[in-house]
Specification:
It is built from 13 helices and 18 strands. It is of the alpha/beta class. It has a domain at 30-221 and 290-300 and 319-326: Alpha-Beta Complex (Inosine-uridine Nucleoside N-ribohydrolase, Chain A), CATH 3.90.245.10. It holds the Pfam family Sde0182_C. Residues 1-20 form the signal peptide. This is Secreted protein containing DUF1593. Keywords: Signal.
Length: 504
């Protein structure tokens, strides 16, 4: 996609009030991942997917850690130790695809840089394996990334246990002032997937100001959450969400048939490195578990804000106020948390969404991810094409523009209660010359206005308009421009979010 505009750019067009492109998150994000590599194939799936998107963000750490299922007490020998070598195997595959990827987009991480940020964290389980003298290469990597001379916050994805992050906080606090520790904590944006050890609750109790998202279930909506590995490999069809892998069967098995044809087949070294999510006895599950969603929002900077958890995007949506004691879904972890101190996290929020292609109605905590699934799957498949195809043989992302602004920043627009408001996206483009389909839609859950939203006139064109609600004074309304090209085999989508601040 594209590089973010300057921090504050005022644009006037067509005699309308100015739009401000406010970059409050630093644009291209910095990110670091903690993963229990070797626990099951979804870790490798999500890291292959991550490196296929790493032109969109800066990778500051790939840290192998323990968790509920991978630790010295595991009944399986392979799961009793860390496996940083799996990161290196995927980076080796990425290096083979690297020359071809550079033909399709700019910004790719150098393979040697990725190797340099691989580290191992705590070797034991939970907060019990932290404390003085227990620093690891992984905890030091976290400190180095946070304290780097860079004003951007660090997006930390915890796809396992979080005791290595706890160790980093313990070590930093031991040698710094309270003010320095507060500054260190303020630089963190943590997304904890699954609460897979007791360290997350400890961190949030010990450092209550930390920005901490906890997703127990919503992250599974990338491919699921229909049940894991049923005997017929079809999972729970009632909870698989929108059917985005047609014409293959609507089941976990059908998802894998889609992946065999569109991810693994003829897509070079990264396709080979992406494993099937297969368990002992040959059981399959839905794709990529929960590990992809926590970082996926960073791909769409014009839609997703790392500072506003309730705005939504490819990484889901969460309540704007912290929730007390949002316990882990895992009983053993939950039992530990319930004997500890109270803690607060940003918890999963619900959306109501009607699929515009099918008219199917979805509500609940999975809908914030499901509403973007069609675009996210197409994005991944297209990126795998980039590994092996020439530029002319592949599809590339369109560029959504509002007025003259073709950047990535989320836009802020003033509106007057009771008055019409119009927008112009006619300067949107497609690098392949494909036709564009426009769709403008309100994201009611993201704004503060709770009344009835108006109809959007010409909402499938480049020039929509609507009347700002009469009773919306002092509130915000979120409008999303979604443009999708007609490229084949995978139509690609770009977004711009406009936050309308309503006055009189």
């Amino acid at each position: 996609m594209r590089t973010i505009c300057a921090a504050l750019l005022l644009i006037s067009y067509l005699g309308e009030p100015s739009i401000a492109a406010e970059d409050t998150t630093g644009g291209r994000a910095r990110m670091l991942v903690l993963a229990d590599m070797g626990n099951e194939p979804d870790e490798e799936q999500q890291i292959v997917h991550l490196v296929a998107c790493c032109n969109e963000f800066d990778v500051e750490g790939l840290i192998a850690v323990t968790g509920k299922y991978l630790h010295p007490g595991s009944p399986t020998a392979y799961r009793q130790r860390l496996h940083p070598e799996l990161f290196h195997q995927i980076i080796d595959a990425y290096e083979k695809a690297f020359p071809n990827l550079k033909k399709h987009a700019d910004g790719w991480a150098d393979p040697d840089h990725l190797r340099s940020v691989v580290a191992s964290g705590q070797t034991g389980y939970g907060i019990e394996d932290t404390g003085p003298g227990k620093s690891t290469a992984g905890s030091k990597r976290i400190i180095d990334a946070v304290t780097k001379d860079d004003p951007r916050p660090l997006w930390v994805v915890v796809n396992a246990g979080s005791n290595t992050l706890a160790q980093a906080l313990i070590d930093y606090r031991a040698s710094h002032t309270a003010a320095e520790v507060a500054d260190f904590v303020s630089r963190l944006r943590v997304f904890e997937n699954g609460a897979q050890d007791n360290s997350g609750a400890w961190i949030c109790a010990e450092f209550p100001d930390i920005h901490w998202i906890r997703s127990n279930y919503q992250t599974y909506a990338y491919g699921g959450p229909g049940g894991d590995g049923k005997k017929d490999n079809r999972g729970s069809r009632q909870s698989l969400g929108p059917y985005t892998w047609k014409p293959y069967e609507y089941s976990g098995l059908g998802q894998h048939h889609w992946a065999l044809d569109h991810i693994k087949s003829d897509n070079g070294p990264l396709g080979v490195a992406w494993p099937l999510r297969q368990f002992s006895g040959g059981r399959l599950s839905f794709l990529e578990g929960g590990g992809t969603v926590p970082w996926l929002g960073l791909v769409n900077k014009g839609l997703f804000s790392i500072d506003h958890v309730n705005w939504g995007g490819w990484s889901g949506r969460f309540d704007p106020q912290k929730t007390s004691n949002d316990w882990s879904k895992h009983r053993s972890v939950r039992d530990d948390e319930q004997t500890g101190r109270p803690f607060k996290v940003y918890a999963e929020a619900e959306d109501h969404w009607i699929d515009p292609e099918t008219g199917e109605d979805f509500s609940g905590i999975f809908a914030p991810v499901w509403r973007f699934r069609r675009a996210t799957w197409n994005d991944f498949a297209a990126r795998l094409d980039w590994c092996v195809r020439s530029y002319d043989q592949a599809n590339h992302h369109p560029v959504a523009a509002i007025g003259d602004d073709a950047g990535d920043a989320i836009l802020f627009r003033s509106g007057t209660a009771g008055e019409p408001l119009s927008l112009d996206a006619t300067k949107s483009t497609d690098p392949d010359g494909d036709q564009l389909r426009f769709r403008w839609w309100f994201y009611p859950e993201a704004g503060t206005y709770t009344g009835e939203l108006p109809a959007i006139r010409n909402g499938e064109t480049a020039t929509p308009s609507f009347n700002v609600p009469q009773d919306a004074n002092g509130q915000t309304i979120h409008l999303v421009l979604e443009i999708t090209d007609t490229g084949r085999p995978y139509p690609l989508t770009d977004y711009r979010r406009i936050v309308i601040r309503v006055g009189t």
